[in-house]
Specification:
Blueprint lengths: L1 H5 L2 E2 L7 E2 L2 E2 L8 E8 L2 E8 L8 E2 L32 E4 L15 E4 L9 E4 L2 E9 H6 L1 E6 L5 E6 L8 E4 L15 E8 L6 H13 L9 H9 L2
Parallel strand pairs: 10-14
Antiparallel strand pairs: 1-2, 3-6, 4-5, 7-8, 9-10, 11-12, 13-14
Length: 236
């Protein structure tokens, strides 16, 4: 307590009035007050935090109007954070020394930042460190085979082979193209889901070609839309 009695305390960080701290008159600088109760078993002494100085043992008779004697005042401040690759929604970052300032010159605590990751673009999703992409595959490409190019989330162009006879729901795994793992350890995979598209708007010539194909394959046609329905069922 002698330190507080002998040294003045600048309680306004912007250069306000310099005031002296004094030992609390309620607790005598101890930071606690005692209550004595007499019982048939003798005296019982209990101690609790001083209500005048809140356990600090000192008071400031004329505190600063801005900080009320705490030596700190609230203000807004902008800081820059480095977000590591691979963080997920709800992850926390600890920024040392950026938390609330301690009372009367005590060191500041830490700042914990909870991250909210924005939703991925349409057709993309995340499962752990794996990325999933729903790729549209034309019906003819799925039946005859071919290749399709698409852009990743890192604006990298990838080309993937589509074997003949690919059906809806098949997947292709591309290693080390997913989300980077925190603290090293490589990356997850990119999983490409085949979404085979059935043509919805056919002109007369296209419809006639499909009818000829159905006839050659020995498939019956149930009305004008029958072949389209059969194609839909074939690629489910």
């Amino acid at each position: 307590m002698s330190k507080w009695r002998s040294k003045p305390f600048l309680d306004h960080p912007a250069g306000g009035a310099l005031t002296l701290v004094q030992a609390c008159h309620t607790c005598g600088g101890r930071g606690e007050v005692q209550n004595v109760r007499r019982t048939i078993l003798g005296q019982i002494v209990t101690a609790h935090k001083c209500p005048s100085c809140h356990g600090q043992g000192v008071v400031i008779p004329t505190p600063c109007v801005d900080c009320r004697g705490d030596g700190r005042a609230a203000k807004m401040q902008s800081i820059s954070l480095r977000i590591p690759s691979g963080v997920d929604d709800g992850s926390q970052l600890r920024v040392g020394g950026r938390g609330d300032l301690g009372v009367r010159g005590a060191p500041a605590g830490d700042l914990y930042v909870r991250l909210r990751v924005s939703a991925p673009p349409a057709g993309w999703s995340r499962n752990g460190f794996d990325l999933h992409f729903d790729m549209a595959v034309p019906m003819t490409t799925a039946a005859l085979g071919g290749s399709i190019s698409f852009a990743t989330l890192e604006d990298e162009e990838l080309e993937i082979d589509i074997p003949a006879g690919t059906v809806y729901g098949e997947t292709r795994h591309i290693g080390k193209r997913g989300v980077p793992r925190l603290q090293g350890g490589g990356r997850g995979d990119l999983v490409v889901n085949m979404v085979v598209e059935t043509p919805k708007a056919l002109d007369a010539e296209q419809e006639e070609l499909l009818r000829q194909l159905a006839t050659m394959r020995g498939e019956s046609i149930d009305g004008p839309a029958g072949v389209v329905n059969r194609i839909k069922r074939a690629f489910r």
